[in-house]
Amino acid sequence: MKSFCFFNTVDQWGGGERWHLDMALYLRSKGHDVIVITQPGAVLGERARKEGMVVFHVLLKNLSFLNPFVLLKLANVFRTNRIDTVVLNLSRDLKCGGISARIAGVKNIIFRRGSDRTVRNYFINRFLYQKVVTGILTNSQATKKSILSNGTSLVDPDKITVIPNGIDIKSFLEKGFEVLQPKQKSAIVLGALGRLEPQKNFEFLIPVAIELKKSGITFEFLIGGKGSQESKLKSLVDENDLKDVFQFVGFLDNPKDLLMSSDIFLLPSLWEGFGYVIVEASLSELPVIAFDISSNGEVISEATGHLTPPHDVAAFCDKIVYLHQHPGERKAMGKAGRTFVVDHFESAKIFQKIESYLTG
User: Fold this and answer.
1) Does residue 266 sit in helix, strand or coil?
2) 65-91: b or e for each residue (b if 16 or more CB lie within 10 Å)?
3) Which range (28-32, 33-37, 113-117) has the least confidence?
4) What values do phi and psi take at 77, rounded to 5?
5) In the chain, what are the domain boundaries?
6) What pLDDT band is residue 272 in, cutting at 50, 70 and 90?
7) Residues 358, 167, 29, 255: what is their CA dihedral angle, to the nearest 10 degrees?
8) % residues pLDDT > 70 (the chain)
9) Pairing of strands 3-7, 188-193
10) Distance from CA of residue 157 to its chain's centroid?
């Protein structure tokens, strides 16, 4: 058996944090020793502790890797727990945790890159990618492509492995839910779920709602999530007299509540490493409308949803109106989406691949 450390200092809960917790729990279930390192108060740490996992806390800033006391403290954690493999999340995690792991003699230092964002070809990144990490794990071809967008001088492509995220399909389908009632009867319900942050681009839904009102269809947005843009979004809704078609339901412990209350799922994100929420929406038999960016095309096909040009309000609205007017096709897309997820993203198969990669 091996000893793993999942190192993720994101405060909030998102797809990356879910992946770290799911993999930590899976590896523990297979008999491996697992610890988690997070920021104090991070949601990941709280959830991992509730699962009975050993959690260490470290307060990191972008330049913490220049502090020898932080590096030595982390190296001691790795040595004391005899860590064979450390999986790192953020750039600051890579800098501090990666260097500390190298000091401690950790065999496998894996940077799990889950965001489809260009990596700057700086000296520090070349040092980390070439001399510190032993492997880079991405969740989509789009994420791998973004790492290599500046050529191969940053890192050897052979050092990058692509394994998509997995989902426990059986647990998701069997999980109960509570339907969220729309404000308007006979309205088509448009669901959107995620952190209310600039990346998720929920602000785009304001002009979409304005345009949809011109079309004459009866609709309502169900918005799930919390974040720094919540106040701004609610103000925009008020300013544009859209309170009758927007319902903010806050953070949901069970995203299925919103998904099973919706008719179409919308994802206006500016980038995605791997859309967990797309997979969950498809399992809920919802057609998905999203921008044609990042890995969306790896998770959404013509049979399961629609991809539109980024920021194109008219094209986005056209797809919503079309699906509203063609309920039979809407249902067929939902069923096709569920089949696609079952065939490609079952967690048991995915997690076995990741375990083989991490222990190889």
Assistant:
1) strand
2) beeeebbeebbebbeebebbbbbbbbb
3) 113-117
4) -60, -45
5) 3-166+346-359, 171-344
6) confident
7) 130
8) 100
9) unpaired
10) 23
Q: Which of 81, 119, 120, 117 shows the shortest CA–CA distance to 101? A: 81
Q: What angle do CA 5, 91, 133 make, to 5 degrees?
A: 60
Q: Are 162 and 139 in contact (CB under 8 A)?
A: yes
Return the CATH fold of 3-166+346-359.
Answer: Rossmann fold (3.40.50)
Average pLDDT value for residue range 196-223: 96
158 vs 30: CA distance, rounded Å: 28
> Residues 153, 159, 162, 167: is their CA dihedral positive or negative?
negative
- Residue 205 — φ and ψ, nearest 5°? -75, -15
d(C-alpha 40, C-alpha 38), whole Å? 6
Helices (H), ranges, 223-271 = 230-239, 256-259
Per-residue pLDDT at 185 exceeds 90? no
Neighbours of 269 (CB within 10 A): 25
Distance CA 187, CA 334 (A): 18
What six digits make up the tokens of 223?
């918005």
Q: Which two tokens stand for residue 35?
A: 């610890």
| Closest residue by Cα to residue 194 from 202, 206, 186 | 202
Instruction: Measure the CA–CA gap between 331 and 290, rounded to whole angstroms.
Output: 17
Please give the Cα distance from 166 to 63 (Å, whole number).
33
Helix, strand counts (H, E) of the chain: 16, 13
Is there a common fold for 3-166+346-359 and 171-344?
yes
Residue 183 predicted with pLDDT over 80: no
For residues 332-345, average pLDDT: 96
Strands (E), the chain: 3-7, 33-38, 54-57, 85-88, 108-113, 135-138, 160-162, 188-193, 219-224, 246-250, 264-267, 288-291, 305-308
CA neighbor of 11 nearest in space, from 89, 113, 104, 109:
89
More confident residue, 231 or 114: 231
| Alpha-carbon separation of residue 204 from 25, 199, 213, 223 (angstroms) | 36, 11, 15, 13
Topology of the domain comprising 171-344: Rossmann fold (3.40.50)
Q: The pTM is what?
A: 0.84
- Print burial letters for 18-46: b (CB count within 10 Å at least 16), e (below 16): bbbbbbbbbbbeeebbbbbbbbeebbbbe
Given a contact cutoff of 8 angstroms between Cβ atoms, the answer to whether 260 and 284 are in contact is: yes
